[in-house]
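hey can u run this one w/ nicotinamide-adenine-dinucleotide bound, need the structure tokens asap thx
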Amino acid sequence: MNFTHGNKVVLVGTGAVGSSYAYALMNQGICDELVLIDLNEEKAKGDVMDLDHGIVYAPSAMNITFGTYADCQDAAIVVICAGAAQKPGETRLDLVSKNVKIFESIVGSIMESGFNGIFLVATNPVDILAYATWKISGLPKERVIGSGTVLDSARFRYLLGEEFDTAPTSVHGYIIGEHGDSQLPVWSLANISGTPIAQKLTEERKEEISIQVRDAAYKIIESKGATYYGIAMGLARITRAILRNENVVLPVGALLEGENGHSDVYIGIPSVINRTGIKKVVELTLNQKEQEKLANSVRTLRDIQAEIWT
Ligand SMILES: NC(=O)c1ccc[n+]([C@@H]2O[C@H](COP(=O)([O-])OP(=O)(O)OC[C@H]3O[C@@H](n4cnc5c(N)ncnc54)[C@H](O)[C@@H]3O)[C@@H](O)[C@H]2O)c1
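ok here u go:
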């Protein structure tokens, strides 16, 4: 296997999402070493101090420091949460050109350090920026992971858990496609202990739940300006799956190369995650309607890619 040893994580971008992720890593004792980088150095240094004071009550020791891109050289994972955040009323795709430019500089600097680990990208529009990271870095596709629909799938499972008065951890279901408006719930495969859920809900109720999942970010942003705890837990979960070589299936942003009939696009899809990154994209058996919706989501993203990379 070709990857960097050790479990050092470098976090680029210590805003609301990044600092919540750092806090989740510390609380769960996921890595031994965490380096924080941000354009706003004072903010990152403040976060380091604040987090360091929590270490005494953390489940395990963790060395948390302020750093520079040179620190990426021996990192196992670089997590990027840097960039302009989504403003009220702004779609994730509106952010695209702003953040692709920021990524050219960030990913370029990381690669100059000699980094040879795994990228985990959370900045929106995350599917486009995971694709940008893969292109700019030149790393193999399995070592560039987007957060994809990890958060949307958690929202879906949470709502279904409420609906059926069952723990969301016992609800199995995926949101796939764009982390954005063209995403789709895979109702045909959603289940609780192997029992399909779709037949137990009316078409109207399914539509309501799909909309609630799709529009959750808009609602939270309206209420408090940004969303960060949910994604931070999702990123921590992916980090743990990588560092502990878990071979667990998580809905992440992966490059499709023929899976479900699509190629050359990063999109949210269940994938097997281990120490090599994305070991394998899971090929889902979708019904006709779901296939059409996935094709539409792929088209949405590829249209944006075409504008940027032609
Ligand atoms: N993938 C998901 O599911 C998901 C969920 C929520 C938010 N997000 C996205 O995460 C990103 C961060 O959101 P946030 O709320 O933390 O924003 P934020 O504004 O609080 O933080 C962004 C941070 O990036 C830093 N930054 C900007 N340009 C930089 C550069 N060139 N180099 C280094 N650091 C730089 C800023 O100084 C700031 O600290 C946004 O793009 C947001 O849309 C993704």
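The mean pLDDT is 95. anyway lmk if its weird
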